[in-house]
Amino acid sequence: MSEPSIAPNRAPAKPSQSSDSHLLADKTLIIFDWDGTLMDSIGLIVESMHVAGEAHGFQTTDKEVQDIIGLSLMNGIEILYPQATDTQKLAIQQSYADYYIPNSHRTPFFAPIEAMLQTLQQQSKRLAVATGKKRRGLDRVLDASKSHDYFVMTRCADEAGSKPDPQMLNDILDYTQQQISDAVFIGDSIYDIQMATQLGMTSIAVNYGTASSAELAAQNPTYQVETPQALADLLCG
Fold first, then answer.
1. Does the global pTM surpass 0.90?
2. Which of 17, 78, 96, 210 measures 20 to 30 Å from 26, CA to CA?
3. The dihedral of CA 165, 166, 169, 175: what is its sign?
């Protein structure tokens, strides 16, 4: 990984913050998005949304589905299928779950992620998750991946406002009694970076998930990395 790919962006999340406030070595709370950041699930999400939409007479593109990942499921459905009735939107949501759940074994952690989580725990970092998933869905994948014990708190879209509303981050900060300056948020969508920016929280954009490198760079994340290994190197180095 070349040095520029993990260097802080020139524009800080908040102009009033000094660059020292973004030093990762000083962060005691590391908050992750889930899909496309920790778990390799983007392909299944796109596939499931195509299956669900087409089951009710609607079609969309891969890119359009990728662009709503990070939002709550119903918010995403409303963006993708604005012409659908409320009844149809609920039916699409159910069809999505009916396809995604039995196939969710196809969504492992990205290769270096579990070792990274273990290393961060050994470094006495506190880890948390802020995700667009519903609680039931997150608990299911936490169980399947046996990863509950890595995280001191997890927050879901049905427990707080959908991204980019920063309520999830505020809830995690309140629970852990940490300050914004103590935390960093990592995500793969523009909504992730927008959420962190609203609080002036240090952010890391990962280019291997939903949004393109250019789309993420336009949101001025504090750091930006290309691969899961580069993320592990940045956080654990």
1. no
2. 210
3. negative
